[in-house]
Amino acid sequence: MLSQRLLKKLVTFANAKGVQVVPDVDFPSHAGAILKQLKRKHPKTYRAVKLDKQTIDYTKKQSITVVKKIYHELDAAFKHQPHRDLILGADEVPGDGAAHKSLTTFINQINRDQNKHGFTTTTWNDSLYKKELPKLDTNIVINYWSQSGNHSEARQLNSRKAKRVSVPDLVAAKRKIVNANSYATYYQLKYIDNANDDRYFLDYLHDQYRPNLFNEIDVYGQNQNRTVESDVTTTGTLVSLWGHDSKGVSVQTIVDFVRRIDVPK
After folding, report:
1. What are the boundaries of each domain within the chain?
2. Which of 32, 205, 240, 262 falls 20 to 30 Å from 181 in CA-CA distance?
3. Locate the Glycoside hydrolase family 20 catalytic domain: which residues (predicted)?
């Protein structure tokens, strides 16, 4: 956790190195730590915006107000960064299709507010419904990690195949896509320095992965991590290094590992 002062210092250092820092503060899901702070410091607000222990209630206007305020605390640190991008989250969001109408409104409101502060926003794909896509602001970038949300149950897969956006849906709607294939581009930091695990990830990413290979549900209702989408011109590949149970991994070890990553273009 960085203070505003340290975050500004980090961004200034990155600017000098020609590196862009992209903040990723997820809402409405994965907000457990922020909800804990709200409960401690602002219990009335906490009760008003809490959906569950990990989720802000995206159907309420007050939640949008709270999220805007949190993002505004970030904005100042990035004021002098030449290019500003913000990952909003919106992945693994609970609720049915009716509730997700409110999710679209939630995302759009946050996007428009952050646009005013010079940010291009990005959201994850798995909670986006096909019928809601035309209503989603067209300048939002989509990180496509998995149509299934990594579910494996037949009922879930069939439902998601029918309702959740596919890569062809996004292409037809002329949306910008970043490939974040959850099989090919994700690695857990706790495995770093395990030679076999390191080598498998690095080799698969370099030799087997291509920017037009996506994680989607096929016509048989099966999850496939090598679905070829030949019509796609992506705006890049997102490699994710997950920090669960990795407190013993040094910064230098992570830096050395990152230098070994070679992503096909």
Report:
1. 20-260
2. 32
3. 2-165
Per-residue pLDDT of the chain (265 residues; tens, 9 = 90+): 788 899 999 999 999 999 999 999 999 999 999 999 999 999 999 999 999 999 999 999 999 999 999 999 999 999 999 999 999 999 999 998 888 899 999 999 999 999 999 999 999 999 999 999 999 999 999 999 999 999 999 999 999 999 999 999 999 999 999 999 999 999 999 999 999 999 999 999 999 999 999 999 999 999 999 999 999 988 889 999 999 899 999 999 999 999 999 999 8
Which residue in the block uniquely carries the two structure tokens 């903040």?
Answer: 23
Q: Out of 92, 132, 216, 229, which one is annotated catalytic? A: 92
Secondary structure, 3-state, 30-54:
CCHHHHHHHHHHCHHHHHHHEEECC
pTM of the model: 0.95
Told to judge if 92 belongs to the known catalytic residues of this protein, a careful annotator would answer yes
